[in-house]
Design goal:
The complex is a heterodimer of chains A (312) and B (453).
Chain A lengths: L3 H18 L1 E2 L8 E2 L4 E2 L5 E11 L11 H11 L11 E2 H6 L1 H17 L1 H14 L1 H4 L12 H12 L3 H16 L6 E6 L6 H6 L14 E9 L3 E5 L2 E3 L8 E3 L3 E4 L3 E3 L1 H9 L3 E5 L1 E6 L10 E10 L2 E2 L1
Antiparallel strand pairs in A: 3-16, 4-15, 5-14, 6-13, 7-11, 7-12, 7-15, 8-10, 8-14, 9-13
Chain B lengths: L5 H10 L28 E5 L6 E7 L3 H4 E4 L2 E4 L7 H5 L5 E18 L6 E17 H9 L3 E24 L4 E28 L2 E13 L3 E3 L2 E2 L5 E2 L5 E3 L6 E15 L2 E15 L4 E12 L2 E4 L2 E4 L12 E3 L4 E4 L3 E10 L4 E11 L4 E11 L5 E10 L3 E10 L5 E6 L5 E2 L10 E15 L6
Antiparallel strand pairs in B: 1-5, 1-28, 2-5, 2-28, 3-4, 5-6, 6-7, 7-8, 8-9, 8-14, 9-16, 10-13, 11-12, 14-15, 15-20, 15-21, 16-19, 17-18, 21-22, 22-23, 23-24, 24-25, 25-26, 26-28
Classes of the chains: A alpha+beta (312), B mainly beta (453).
């Protein structure tokens, strides 16, 4: 007992000391530990994920009559070398809607042909190939067999003197230019398999109408073009109907697309469609004659942009 | 609401341990002290209570619990939770974050002085388990910032083995120098090391990609793998495909503890030792090796030349799909420890001041620590020690130890949790180290004549 007494006192003293010095923090009760929303990044983060990259080939762009190459080759002939207003482009929208502008363009063509033999030769050759029947009457060749050499020689010789020939030339140029259009572009995409990224991108999106949203999803993109055309494109995904905000592209430039905000259901619809396609209506804006054509003139890269954290 | 099962927490808390409580180094006369230095000896012979003669559990981490868990609106969440701001979560994260932990349980132990009462021998049988977890700071940074990540050496290593050791110490130089050595036969019970040597994460607008290279090297008793086969007929396995058919040792080895003490002055003793200097040959038969080299990439849909190329499924399922490698017999060094100490006594050996340097060599890192100690021993069978330990990357901790060895019992208890703030589960909240040691035994045989009192 003599031995035990001081030991007991010491242990009690030690225990009391430990209790005094240490404490339990219930805020750290491991029984209440939650996996919670494990997130990659935070409210300030922005993530971009690839969606679709379309390389538009020159042969993909055409109208019902022929390829873009053929269209522009002919346009180069029907357009005067010096364009109205001293600019280096022709404005398609004005050609379609502004008769005075159209008359100015075709008038400049006829004027140029009046003093530029080479231009007349080119038009004569084009007319022989594509519009011969329309010019037989002004050339006085109705019902008369004629070969190319005879036709073009007569066209060149009579162009300056024949008012009817000039009028027919101007009318043919006008008809061609106002019908200058290209068909819409269509690409089959199949299925977008976002895998586990789908849930990561959509897990915490703020609903539509949320003021000052932090967790948003948008489709953004970049379009690079080397075409000598400026165009307005309005892509739409089918069959989901998801529309990308229309955008314009200009020659030799990279265009950043205006973000198109989308929501969970939009992305799920894209990811779950097995026959996804993208339809791109094309509206020609301007043509810059005299520039070379690239075989792969347009690259459209669409990506998903997520603001805020990615929830795992 | 996802709740993390409490047993996982308990497993993490218990399985991650490497246990040497530095405060106990200065408990003169305790039977535990010999594990630091075989030149030490208790006051007299002993017989430990089987299974309770010396139980040590310890954790050393470069992070505290409140660096990893955050109270939020009545909940407790991890640092990866969206509610924890990036700056707050990364504040305490370093390039290399390690958690080393271990436990040592004395299953059987006894020892005695020889007739001259200066030579001491002992035998003990111990069970060891240790684990080292390495969390690269880049991993946490990637998750919290959401930027590209180039993560290296994410890994965990665990090892269990038993040792049976015989120790002998004796004096030289007119009792000023004591030399001790312990020879240990080791029996490997199991080990595993899983390392992601490389994990590169790319999150660009044209490409999301994860590149990984992981290796698994394990010795699991009576292991059997249920292989799966891919489309090309090549075998692979996942961790869940490994089964244990039975139990038998998977390796054998040998180790020594070497130590010396020297009384520079009558009241000044210095000590030096290297413990666990040895190896285990892990056998080939139960060795499982595999590697996983995976590239997961999502690039969206590419349309060109009327060809539509869809990106493969962006799934992480394959990242732990291991291709089997040839089994090997592996010789692995133990996680050795270097101890260098000095003690100075005052007041007729009743008060002592101690200084201890330790270097512990773990798989992913080496931990260095310095401990300063004040020891109070009013009578020979009673020692109370208080210490402060500073460990590289693990911060500091205050420790207390008590050794009682009257003529009928040996009892010691030590902890460095005395001043800690705890979770209700008694895990320290703000302390990077956690060591708890206790032992119970009975004195046996004649008293030694080493101590100066």
């Amino acid at each position: 007992m003599l031995i035990f007494t001081p030991m007991k006192k010491t242990i009690l003293l030690l225990a009391a000391g430990l209790l005094t010095l240490s404490c339990v923090d219930k805020a750290y009760d491991l029984g209440r530990l939650e996996g919670g929303q494990i997130a990659v990044g935070d409210d300030e983060s922005e993530f971009a994920a690839p969606l679709v990259t379309v390389t538009v080939l020159l042969d993909d762009i055409h109208d019902s009559q022929g390829s873009l190459q053929e269209m522009l080759d002919e346009a180069d002939i029907w357009l005067p070398s010096e364009l109205p207003g001293g600019v280096d482009y022709v404005d398609f929208q004005r050609l379609y809607a502004d008769d005075a502008y159209l008359a100015e363009v075709t008038g400049a063509l006829v004027d140029e042909m009046g003093h530029d033999a080479a231009k007349v030769d080119k038009v004569a050759d084009l007319v022989w190939r594509c519009y011969k029947d329309d010019f037989l009457k002004p050339l006085g060749l109705e019902g008369i067999p004629v070969d190319k050499a005879q036709f073009t020689t007569l066209f060149v010789d009579r162009f300056t003197a024949s008012e009817a020939l000039r009028e027919q030339t101007e009318a043919t140029a006008r008809k061609f230019l106002i019908l200058l259009q290209v068909s819409d572009l269509d690409y089959q995409l199949g299925a977008i398999d976002l895998g586990e990224a789908l849930d990561m991108l959509t897990a915490n999106l703020d609903p539509e109408g949320t003021p000052d949203p932090r967790n948003t999803l948008s489709i953004k993109g970049k379009v690079e073009s080397t075409l000598p055309l400026s165009m307005r494109l309005s892509p739409v995904f089918t069959p989901t109907g998801l529309e990308i905000a229309p955008f314009a592209i200009a020659p030799g430039t990279t265009t950043e697309l205006t973000p198109t905000r989308i929501y969970t259901e939009d992305l799920r619809a894209l990811a779950e469609a097995n026959d996804l396609a993208i339809h791109v209506p094309v509206e020609l804006q301007r043509y810059y004659p005299g520039r070379a054509l690239d075989a792969r003139p347009i690259s459209i890269r669409l990506s998903l942009h997520k603001t805020g954290a990615l929830n795992l | 609401m996802k709740r993390i099962p409490i047993y996982i927490i308990a497993l993490l808390a218990a399985a991650t341990a490497a246990a040497q409580n530095p405060t106990t180094y200065f408990m003169e006369g305790s039977t535990l002290r010999m594990q630091y230095n075989p030149a030490f000896a208790p006051h007299r012979g002993y017989f430990n209570v089987p299974g309770a003669g010396g139980v040590q559990v310890g954790v050393n981490s470069s992070l505290t619990l409140d660096n990893l868990l955050y109270p939020r609106d009545g909940r407790l969440v991890t640092l990866f939770d969206a509610s924890v701001p990036t700056s707050e979560a990364l504040r305490n994260i370093r390039d290399k974050n390690t958690l080393t932990a271990g436990t040592r349980v004395n299953l059987l132990g006894f020892g005695s002085y020889t007739r001259n009462r200066k030579h001491f021998w002992s035998f003990d049988l111990n069970l060891h388990a240790s684990a080292t977890l390495n969390i690269p700071g880049k991993l946490v940074e990637f998750v919290k910032r959401g930027t590209d990540g180039s993560i290296r050496d994410l890994g965990i290593s665990v090892e269990t083995y038993a040792d049976a050791g015989f120790s002998y110490s004796f004096p030289l130089l007119d009792d000023k120098l004591y030399i001790g050595a312990k020879a240990k036969v080791l029996v490997g019970l199991g080990r595993a090391k899983l390392t992601f040597d490389r994990m590169d994460v790319t999150l660009h607008d044209d490409r999301w990609a994860v590149d990984t290279y992981a290796t698994l090297d394990a010795n699991i008793p009576e292991a059997e793998i249920n292989y799966r086969y891919d489309e090309e007929g090549r075998p692979y396995f996942e961790l869940s495909d490994i089964r244990m058919k039975g139990f038998k040792p998977t390796g054998y080895g040998f180790a020594v503890d070497l130590g010396a003490t020297y009384n520079v002055l009558p009241d000044l003793q210095v000590s030096l030792s290297v413990t666990d200097l040895g190896f285990i040959d892990w056998d080939k038969e139960n060795n499982i090796r595999g590697h996983s080299e995976e590239h997961v990439e999502y690039t969206g849909i590419t349309v060109e030349n009327d060809m539509t190329v869809a990106s493969p499924d962006f799934s992480f399922d394959d990242l732990l799909r291991f291709r089997p490698d040839d089994s090997q017999m592996k010789t692995r060094m133990l996680q050795a420890t270097l101890n260098a100490g000095a003690e100075y006594y005052l007041w007729d050996h009743r008060v002592g001041f101690g200084l201890l340097y330790q270097a512990r060599f773990h798989h992913f890192t080496t931990l260095h620590s310095v401990t300063g100690s004040v020891n109070f021993s009013p009578v020979r069978w009673f020692t109370l020690a208080a210490s402060y330990t500073r460990t590289t990357r693990c911060g500091g901790s205050f420790g207390l130890a008590l050794n009682l060895c009257p003529s009928w019992i040996n009892f010691f208890i030590a902890t460095d949790l005395a001043t800690a703030k705890f979770t209700p589960q008694y895990i320290p909240v703000r302390q990077r180290t956690m060591n708890v040691t206790f032992g119970l035994g009975f004195p046996l045989g004649p008293k030694g004549q080493r101590t100066q009192k």
